[in-house]
Design a protein that fits this description.
The chain is an alpha/beta fold and 379 residues long. Helices cover 46% and strands 12% of the residues. The N and C termini lie far apart (58 Å).
């Protein structure tokens, strides 16, 4: 384990007091960073209610982690962990409104049981870094941490990080599937890198730089993806202090990507609708379209042919763009010379164009889906 504390920060990124480093053993499989107050004593830490926020990032097995936590609620309670399912974004709403009142009861219940409070929601990785309108110079994360600490809590953040090319590819496929994006992958990647698509933000300095202001905050950053990585659920369990060898119930694996034919169909559907002057502007309309597309994807097994918008050239361009901030983050948080030590380059081959029968399938399915969506809107 790498243990470090952020000392100072510049406008370009994080700087670290390197005297705070304890170099990890070379055989360590789990690389993580802990930011904490050096004066903190373990007994005082445990005497307070601990709040653990699993904040994502997106596309790092968050849904898998949450479903498995839900399936293991009884065992979590046996280990004094109270898991709050935040799938309805209650913490996100409270933080946006600067209204902590809904969480006072949940915090009180955890405290009465002598339990840690675990909250998991991947939207928090982006939300907490956003500025607060009510307080210039402060972000939402500053406000939320302060609310917990004022009520006698210690706060631990857990974030899984992913190499940007794979992250952007997966994030794009999800947004296209959900009918919330309509452009090619290269255009999307360029928009994210030029800060024109904030939901795709994946610069670790921009997402987590606010943490440097909180010397008493613990933060664990764990690399996600690639061969040989540990199960992210068990990594979180280890941070919580529960035994990884306990009889944690497994859950059935699921493929979160709907496949490249689903991506192509969604784009074609949006083109047809746009030509008719129709927009899926409401969440309800987009949700209905997404469910209809997913049913087709499962029916035809489209998820087996995963979408890959990366070419070797685009892959390298994305890596080159993020290299300076990635390396600064890796040096400050993990004590490594470069990001590539955890995420070595692994450029994919360009995906072959759709075959003729696949193009016909996309054309037919998209026209049929447009007819059904238009019929739904007329009801």
């Amino acid at each position: 384990m790498v243990r470090s504390r952020l000392a100072t920060a510049s406008c370009k990124g994080l700087k670290l007091n390197h005297q705070c480093f304890n170099t990890p053993p070379e055989h360590s499989r789990v690389v993580q960073a802990t930011l904490r107050n050096s004066r903190e004593q373990s007994e005082g830490w445990r005497a307070m209610t601990r709040v653990v926020l699993h904040i994502g990032m997106h596309k790092t097995a968050s849904t898998y982690i949450q479903k498995r936590l839900q399936a293991n609620q009884p065992l979590l309670r046996q280990h004094s962990i109270r898991f709050e399912d935040d799938s309805k974004n209650r913490l996100k709403i409270a933080a946006r409104r600067s209204d902590f009142k809904p969480w006072k009861t949940r915090l009180k219940q955890a405290r009465e049981r002598g339990a840690d409070l675990l909250i998991s929601n991947e939207v928090l990785s982006h939300l907490l870094a956003q500025p607060r309108d009510a307080q210039p110079g402060e972000c939402i994360g500053d406000w939320l941490v302060r609310q917990f600490q004022r009520r006698g809590c210690t706060v631990t953040l857990v974030a899984f990080l992913r190499d940007q090319p794979g992250y952007l590819n997966s994030h794009y496929a999800q947004h296209i599937r959900n009918f919330s994006l309509h452009c090619g992958f290269e255009a999307y990647a360029e928009a994210v890198m030029n800060h024109r698509h904030p939901r795709g933000q994946c610069d670790p300095e921009r997402l987590f730089g606010w943490i440097r202001h909180h010397s008493t905050l613990r933060a664990h950053f764990l690399p996600y993806g690639g061969r040989g990585r540990d199960d992210p659920f068990l990594q979180l369990i280890d941070i919580l202090g529960a035994p990884a060898a306990a009889n944690w119930q497994p859950i059935a694996p699921e493929n979160s990507q709907s496949g490249r034919l689903a991506v192509a169909t969604s784009i074609r559907v949006q083109e047809h609708l746009q030509a008719r002057g129709i927009r899926l502007s409401s969440k309800t309309a987009r949700r209905g379209a997404t469910h209809a597309l997913l049913r087709r994807s499962r029916r035809y097994g489209w998820e087996r042919d995963r979408f890959n918008g990366l070419t070797p050239e685009l892959y390298q361009r994305i890596r080159d763009h993020y290299r300076p901030m990635n390396d600064r983050f890796a040096q400050a948080v993990w004590g490594l010379a470069s990001w590539a030590e955890l995420f070595p380059a692994d450029p994919p081959s360009a995906q072959a164009p759709l075959r003729t029968w696949q193009r016909w399938r996309v054309a037919w399915e998209s026209r049929d889906l447009v007819r059904r969506l238009m019929a739904m809107q007329q009801k």
